[in-house]
Amino acid sequence: KKHGAALTEQHVNGTVKFGSGSFGITSLMIWGCMTTQGVGYMCRIDGRMDGELYRDILVSRG
């Protein structure tokens, strides 16, 4: 979309929900990036995302 243009449905991808596991709700946390130059990388986050993990991701992919 052009800068300043309104957001419409054609600009949005839907989400896919996934079911619960044997012992309750299953969850998946991912971190990804995108820029005006394109899509970057994506990685799975196990546990809690904190400042240290965030910096580690940026440094390892730098």
Topology:
Elements: E1 29-35, E2 38-45, H1 51-61
Antiparallel strand pairs: 1-2
Notable traits:
62 residues, alpha+beta, two-stranded antiparallel ribbon, 1 helix, 18% helix, flat
Number of structural domains: 1
Structural class per helix/strand content?
Answer: alpha+beta
Number of helices: 1
What fraction strand? Answer: 15-25%
Mean pLDDT: 81
Beta strand count:
2
Question: Runs with pLDDT <50, length 5+?
Answer: none
Q: What percentage of residues falls in helices of 4 or more residues?
A: 10-25%
Radius of gyration of CA atoms, rounded to a whole number = 16 Å
What is the N-to-C succession of helices and strands?
EEH
Distance between the termini: 28 Å
Strand order of the largest sheet: 1-2
Characterize the largest beta sheet: strand count, sense, and whether it forms a barrel. Answer: 2 strands, antiparallel
Q: Per the principal axes of the C-alpha atoms, what is the gross shape?
A: flat
GO molecular function, one term: nucleic acid binding
InterPro entries: RNaseH_sf
